[in-house]
Amino acid sequence: MLHLALFVLLLKLSNCRGDDGHQIDEYLKREHSLIKPYQGVGSGSSSHWDLMGSAMVMMQYVRLTPDVQSKQGAVWNRIPCYLRDWEMQVHFKVHGQGKKNLNGDGFAIWYTKERMQPGPVFGSKDMFTGLGVFVDTYPNEEKQQESQKRRYTPRSQRIFPYIMAMVGNGTLGYDHERDGRPTELGGCTALVRNLNQDTFLVIRYVRRRLTVMIDIDGKNEWRDCLDIPGVRLPKGYYFGTSSVTGDLSDNHDIISLKLYQLTVERSAEEEREDKEVFIPSVDNIPLLREDGVSQPMSGVALFFIILFSVLGAIVLSVIGVIVYQQWKENRRKRFY
Ligand SMILES: *[C@@H]1O[C@H](CO)[C@@H](O)[C@H](O)[C@H]1NC(C)=O
Ligand SMILES: [Ca+2]
Hints:
The protein is α+β, with helices and mostly antiparallel strands. The protein is 19% helix and 31% strand. The protein folds into two domains: 281 residues, Jelly Rolls (Sandwich), CATH 2.60.120.200; 36 residues. The strands form three sheets. Strands 1, 3, 4, 6, 11, 12, 13 and 16 form an eight-stranded antiparallel sheet that branches. A seven-stranded antiparallel sheet has the order 2-5-15-7-8-9-10, with no helix packed on it. Strands 14-17 form a two-stranded antiparallel ribbon.
């Protein structure tokens, strides 16, 4: 407890200034936080949280799934969040009997329009609208390629467990077979399983900048995971967390979700430019990308292909005309 208090204190000190020296104050918002002793969670109407599927409230944690095959569970906030700048601190524990890569599948932290809808994306709905941060503990793509005896290109290999962020606009699917690679905005490796120390993840959303940091080494230090500017998320979405097990399993435990309101100074100009958003998007990054597999032809490549085709056709027709002339000449010579 003292450790945690110290940790929060350190965090507060380190948070006093934002990236560019602007003052940032933070306040814990109880209505968006899930904290011990989880009073009434999932039952009373007084609770701010709903449980779904296999999720169970224990003394020390909320267990999304036990270390048992084919389970899915979730916890969802009942209150939509209208904060402009916020930070979600997630204290979690992933543990189980499985040896490395014989465990799965991981869990997700959500800030979405939809809530309490079970589905295939870490136990929650696909084609979601909003933000998903996935702690993916099973490398589906790598295992599939291994089984097909295809060689893996190290350049594009991701070491699992892997944390990634995705922004959905309601029409984009999560590619489970490829561990979400086509819609990955950023990510990092995080060996989070079966650790004795406390493991934390923080999602910070300030001035449309999305950052994810982790503290899993027991050093009370945040390590950068991903940092993406220009992320446009509407207000009034719901926080939640969900998890799934399949053929492989793990205990996915949430010890706390702490949502802090961040108070950020904005210049008059920044205020003017801060227009209300209705559909999630990311500036300058397409939400769906093709990488390597079926790369669409670039404009330059297409230009050269057309250019050489035209040149080739001209050369061929010139040769054709010359040959034809020659042939006619020869024929005339034979006639006379
Ligand atoms: C969602 O994103 C995809 C890919 O970026 C885009 O093609 C589609 O038009 C977007 N849908 C909406 C409703 O904005
Ligand atoms: Ca996976």
